[in-house]
Amino acid sequence: xxxxxxxxxxxxxxxxxxxxxxxxxxxxxxxxxxxxxxxxxxxxxxxxxxxxxxxxxxxxxxxxxxxxxxxxxxxxxxxxxxxxxxxxxxxxxxxxxxxxxxxxxxxxxxxxxxxxxxxxxxxxxxxxxxxxxxxxxxxxxxxxxxxxxxxxxxxxxxxxxxxxxxxxxxxxxxxxxxxxxxxxxxxxxxxxxxxxxxxxxxxxxxxxxxxxxxxxxxxxxxxxxxxxxxxxxxxxxxxxxxxxxxxxxxxxxx
Length: 254
Prior knowledge:
Elements: H1 15-25, H2 34-46, E1 57-65, E2 68-83, E3 86-92, E4 101-108, H3 110-113, E5 125-126, H4 128-132, H5 143-153, E6 157-162, E7 182-183, E8 189-190, H6 195-203, H7 209-215, E9 240-241, H8 248-251
Antiparallel strand pairs: 1-2, 2-3, 3-4, 4-6, 5-6, 6-7, 8-9
């Protein structure tokens, strides 16, 4: 799925890589028939896609599955900020026309998270680790605009479900969406994210995650303790704290 804010040069390293990605992306099935193409053309002319039109905020980050944290993937978020406190995103495994829809994410502010029932909160992952580590990026927009977006998302939470393992974590891909959806989480400590995923991510961006991290140090005073920061801590015993990213239970904050 293309985006207005994503320069074509950062979609893939080379045209060959783009073509290879497109070939892998195709699910099993026959080529579109003439009837299908005619119906698509008519729908494009006569039907509306209003709910998709506002999905113009593009973010790239990483998700581990909460119950299987070694299963990790890069997720391309195409989002609509519905109001100051709530956004909804469609998740893809790339940013080309052939990218596969792999999940959804809802994003709420700290204020809305505080209104959730206690039993609901374990489904929502914190975002400060993604932001302050430099892992979360908004490719293609000026640095000042990206910083403003990250400032808006500091202390926020996301509820994310992944439906399709398309193999972006280096494991075998499923040809079709199989099995139950998996609850995804966020990386909140150094040493949790597979470094090969981060290296590949950085190679596609004009600014590396380490530089983004340095650029965002002025956001540290805004970061408050969040629920769920230490949710994956035991799965990665060699991980270490990210400055400014603190679990609310460990800090005594509820």
